[in-house]
Amino acid sequence: MSLSLALNTAKSSMASVSAQISTSAKNISGATDATYSRKIAATTTTADGSVRYTTVRRAQDTALYNKMLGATSSAAEKDALLNGLDRLADTVGDTENEGSPASKIQALANTLTQYANLPSDQDRAASAVTAAKDLAATLNDATSTVTSVRQQADADMASSVENINDLLGQFQDLNNAVIRGTVAGADISTQLDQRDAVLAKISEELGVTTVTRGNNDMAIYTDSGVTLFETTARKVEFNQTTAYSPATVGNAVYIDGVQVTGAGASMPLQSGKLVGLATLRDEVAPTYQAQLDEVARGLIDTFQDGGADGLFTKTGSVTGVGLAGAIVVNAAVDPDQGGNPVLLRDGINTDYNPDDAASFSDRLFALTGALSATRTDYSAAAGIGTTGTLAGFASSSVGWLQNLRSDTTSSSQYQNTLLSNASEALSNVTGVNLDDEYALQLSLEQSYTASAKLMSVVQKMFDDLLSTV
């Protein structure tokens, strides 16, 4: 080997090792960043045997990354739904909770029986009316909660859509930078990391799939096939409904003019936070509201007096959706409104006790019997059967909510475990192992020292040669 060749080899080796040391230092610096992928300084051996630095590659595993994206979307969907179910369950209670509709119905039945056993006791009459008022208030509060949950879900959908549009704008800028860098032959590893990080955030909001094209250009589609990004970002649109009533129907989400949520969606989203919120707002909460409304309707029907509203009536003109929010105790028997609780025994619209007998109990026993009777006309839309007693139907309603919450909790835990496993597997392949990097740096420093020593020896030989001339 000539001295010139030896000198060039030493120089190229030092430059190559220097680039590798710099890359390793960046890896160590980015080790705590979950979005950072390990960088590798690529080298090549030339015809003269020297090693030259060429470019920076990054560690990646497309299959694991896509698995992580899918797990992110599924976990976000279940978490969004579970948050809403927690609010419903915490407020309404369960069948053994004194604040649940089922327990309130049982409390009313107990006070009616006590009053029927001693119909001359006006305190027992007042207790029965108080129990009825507590039951109506429980249904009112539950309806308010359901409406609030739906309104919050609607607001969260608006925030999600705003976030998606913002992230798509960031993705477009990064994608353009990746394309430009690829064409120019520049190091684009950092831009690729940043683009992947934005894509992961998008996958929290809705399920996505991707296609990588020439020059590292990437297109994004929803998990239902709607184009989300292809050269440019597609517009995601949603009109928030700020005022909610039980009967309000929320608006759908559109991507590039295609409806992706709601009953009329031709290409509905399959996963992501948006799906969980839409399911809560459009399916779960309305079904629960239907159950509450059926309890309210059953109470009004059961206590009818002479073909008109008896112990229970309603405010306004609500007859269907939201009836549970409008049910109240008839002012005629409510002492707080100037009413007489004894009319529960004697009749509000019909005189069942024309002799004003203090021991008259027929009407009260008839009401207790009606309250415990099996009904066969519950709406199928409530989703818990069409037959049963009022107390049984109310218990089934709470059981339905508890079971759904339990199933969603299990599903959320499972999906989050999958996400954790997928993220860990991806990190093992693409992340930075500090022990490995420190060992690599030590090896590179030794190589650098050896190359520097070789360069010093060659330089001395040159000097000695020149001194003889």
TrEMBL record:
Superkingdom, natural source: Bacteria
Pfam families: FlgK_D1
Keywords in alphabetical order: Bacterial flagellum, Cell projection, Cilium, Flagellum, Secreted
InterPro entries in the record: FlgK, FlgK_helical
Single Gene Ontology MF annotation: structural molecule activity
Ribonucleoprotein is among the record's keywords: no
Subcellular location: Bacterial flagellum; Secreted
GO biological process per UniProt: bacterial-type flagellum assembly
Domain Flagellar hook-associated protein FlgK helical: 98-311
Cellular-component GO terms for this entry: bacterial-type flagellum hook; extracellular region
Classification via PANTHER family: FLAGELLAR HOOK-ASSOCIATED PROTEIN 1
Family assignment from sequence similarity: Belongs to the flagella basal body rod proteins family.
NCBIfam families the record matches: flgK_ends
Protein name as it appears in the record: Flagellar hook-associated protein 1
Organism: Pseudoxanthobacter soli DSM 19599
